[in-house]
Amino acid sequence: MSVVPTPALPDERLAAGAARLAVRHAGRFAVETVQRLLSDSYQRLAATAQVTTHLVVLAERFAAERLDALAHAQGAPGARVPRVLFVCSQNAGRSQLAAALLQHRAAGRVTVSSAGTRPGPEVEPYIAQVLVEAGADPAGAFPKPLTDEVVRAADIVITMGCGDACPIVSGRRYLDWPVADPEGASLGAVRRIRDDIDHRITDLLASLPST
Questions:
Q1: How does DSSP assign 7-33, residue by residue?
Q2: Which runs of E-coded beta strand occur in 81-146?
Q3: How far apart are the first and last CA of the chain?
Q4: Where do the H-state alpha helices sit in 25-119?
Q5: Which of 11, 24, 26, 84 is the 20 to 30 Å CA partner of 69?
Q6: pLDDT one-digit tens code per residue, 37-74
Q7: What SS3 state is found at 135?
């Protein structure tokens, strides 16, 4: 049986990131698995990113999220905090708003991810501003592609305008939020979209079991 080679990491900084992730997941994932996932994460982001200055850092964050999701899906001890995944088409507006707002309001009750079926090159203008106004942290917002690990780890999948490309995995709770798209919208319109999403998050949090 032939052995699939591990893709070469394109940067010494990426190799250092792989070492950090391997330490975090020691005893759970082989070093080669971590390297392969990080290399794949880098290549996926590089395919659509408009600004590549911080691509190595973002690839490590993306790979960390995928590894955590994979560990959750495999039933790692202590990994039973509910996971919510927001999916829209570009992961540049609605799903970024929803993920940051839920992260802010859930206070550790859930693990939150977001992804796009066709990720855009960058987050829409005004997204960071309206999140800061709401007290949420926009620092982790960058468009990410939808991956199998993140979908399969999710307990709740909330779709937001991705249509037939939205993921379907049996045994998950699915919600569809018909929220306006902030692409090209004014600041006032983006604020209204944020508030619409925030009201829906209030209902979502009320539906989750108490911890």
A1: PPPSSHHHHHHHHHHHHHTTTTS-HHH
A2: 83-88, 111-116
A3: 48
A4: 31-46, 55-73, 94-106
A5: 11
A6: 999 999 999 988 876 778 999 999 999 999 999 998 88
A7: coil
